[in-house]
Amino acid sequence: MYNFNFYNPTRIFFGKDRLDEIDKNIPSGARVLITYGGGSAVRSGLIAKVKTVLGDRKVFEFGGIEPNPRFETLMKAAEIVRNEGIDFIMAIGGGSVIDGTKFICLASHYQGDARNLLKFGFARVTSKVVEKVVPFGAVLTLPATGSEMNDGAVISYDHGKFPVMSEMTFPKFSILDPVITYTLPEIQVANGVIDAFVHITEQYITFPVEARVQDRFAEGLLQTLIEIGETTVAEPENYDARANLVWSATMALNGMIGTGVPQDWTTHMIGHELTAMFGIDHGQTLAIVYPAVLEVRREQKRAKLIQYAERVWKIESGSEDEKISSAILKTREFFESLGVKTRLSEYGVTADKIPALVEQLKAHGLTALSETRDITPEVSQKILETAF
To answer: How many Cβ atoms are within 10 Å of 253's Cβ, its own excluded?
Structure first.
């Protein structure tokens, strides 16, 4: 197991009817900005409920944060924070709203061109770069990204998607009420299951480092998602299934299973380019790319793929290669059981577009991907061809 540092200060309020915790965890005299995405948070009455809980605090609203939050939109919110003296932000939404809010918190008092914050990648933005950060809390409406309990965000600018990370942007608290997610469309729930699943596997199916605790955590989360995936898509008001999805998605990317182990974010990086170029949902891009990554990288990931086959899918018969093939097939079939297509061609993308995708990877510096940094643009092209 590698050396690691672990830090996660986010307080979680899980379960039914937890909105009252907002009042207890925001200073009474705070000037609060509520951030949200489309109109569903308004139509459902959730924004009104949050405003009621906020009581006499001065409240401002900023809606319209996109599913892939755009830099230009977020800078408009940052201007409100500066002009109105906002002390605290409440993000009401899924990963995109929470990601966008993290960037607003960083950009609002950044002394310089905020586009510079997009250049740090996985190197965290520190207090030496941004001296003042507005604190925020979240009410989760879509279980998927784990953004409600981590310090990472993905921001869209120009034709790219850029990771922005900072220990200063952990939510102060997040409210996870599975009931709030009942009205989500089936495709969003399915995308969330896949996003959580791939978050876990990208920290798990790499190579062994004797991190037994992290492995067992990851395997348990994967088995949970397999058990409840179809149920929570088909039965949106099945509280037990949805509660387990919500908590699995949070645990998938709050740092616990990723400590002390190699990680491979190839699927996410290639998936981001598919979203940027063709507008394919994030979860759908992962379902397209991940089985292809496993196929192309089966030798480099051999030991962990066999472990995945045996422990997660309970594949006990056959040769090592047969176990690996069966595990990859079961992964694809699981995604498809949720109603999500897993081939690039099924989204209307033609094979002649693959070179342009590879060029975008090059343009964004994504030329040495994987846990061993050996996925070149040529290997990425092979992955995309396999995904076709």
So the answer is: 24
Ordered structural domains, the chain, with CATH: 11-180 (3.40.50.1970), 184-387 (1.20.1090.10)
Alpha-carbon gap, residue 320 to 317, rounded angstroms:
9
Give exposure, 227-249, as e/b (b: 16+ Cβ within 10 Å): ebbbebbeebebeebbbbbbbbb
Task: Report how far residue 126's alpha carbon sits from residue 293's, in angstroms, rounded to the nearest whole number.
Answer: 33
Residue with tokens 């830099």: 71
Phi, psi of 154 (to 5 degrees): -125, 125
The pLDDT-based confidence of 66 (bands split at 50, 70, 90) is: very high
pLDDT band at 161, cuts 50/70/90? confident
Smallest CA-to-CA distance from 95 within 43, 27, 16, 150 is with: 150
pLDDT tens digits along 300-319: 999 999 999 999 999 999 99
* Cα 301 from Cα 295, distance rounded (Å): 10
Q: Is the pTM of this model over 0.70?
A: yes
Burial class of residue 222 in the structure, from the number of CB atoms within 10 Å of its CB (0-12 exposed, 13-18 middle, 19+ buried)? buried
So what's the pLDDT on residue 159? 80
- ∠ CA 266-271-275, nearest 5°, is 155
Tell the residue number behind the tokens 């207890």, with chain if given. 24
Angle between helices 186-204 and 266-278 (to 10 degrees): 150
Over the chain, what is the mean pLDDT? 97
Task: Please give the single-letter amino acid code of residue 44.
Answer: S
Residue whose token pair is 């608290």:
173
Contacts (Cβ under 8 Å, ≥6 apart) of 148: 10, 12, 95, 98, 138, 140, 171, 174, 176, 250
